[in-house]
Amino acid sequence: MNVEYSELNKSDAKNLMKLRLSVLETDPYSFSVTVEEEKQASLENVESAIESYKKSSDRLMLGAWEDGLSGVVGVERYGNEIEKHKVRLWGPYVNRSIRGNGVGTCLIEKALEFAFTIEGVEMVTLETISESSSAISLFNKHGFERTGVQNRALCYEGKYADLIYMQKINQHNQALELTRGTLVL
């Protein structure tokens, strides 16, 4: 399997939209939106979001490519001054067809590497649904610890899902000596 990893570009917007819709068909809790809500996203809005991430030094949309866009993860620094020491991972997903081949591991490792290169960042947070044992296992493997749960946090077609809150603290409390330009994707 030949998987390439790269930061998403504006030209990837259609591929991202297609991936997200296909994911929601089988995993309706993956992105905390419904298929119907996701279909309302315009190409222009998705392109604009990708561009805003590209222009930012503290946000990243990373894709895994294997016969098309097959996995994604987003990294975003919290906006409030009081929370600037934290970064949030959002939307981590790998197509079912290529799971178990290290793609999720690589996406999370690259996301963490980027997150801890941001000056002042000490903590990475994420949310996942309690039913996703493989995702929880992956996050635990990378040093994330469970910090809480919100019961019945999501409801789709009358079925509920609990959200698990997790975090990873930079144990050395030091910024890694990397920059976006040297991050090997």
Strand percentage lies at 25-35%
Main sheet attributes: strand count, strand direction, barrel closure: 7 strands, mixed
**CATH H-level name... which superfamily?**
Gcn5-related N-acetyltransferase (GNAT)
Average the pLDDT over all residues and give the rounded result: 89
Q: Could you say how many structural domains there are in total?
A: 1
Distance between the termini: 17 Å
Radius of gyration: 16 Å
Q: How many DSSP E strands?
A: 7
Largest beta sheet: strand ordering: 1-2-3-4-5-7-6
Structural class: alpha+beta
Q: Show unreliable segments.
A: 173-185
- Count of DSSP-assigned helices: 5
User: What is the subunit arrangement here?
Assistant: single chain
Element order: H for helix, E for strand: EHHHEEEHEHEE
Q: State the CATH topology.
A: Aminopeptidase
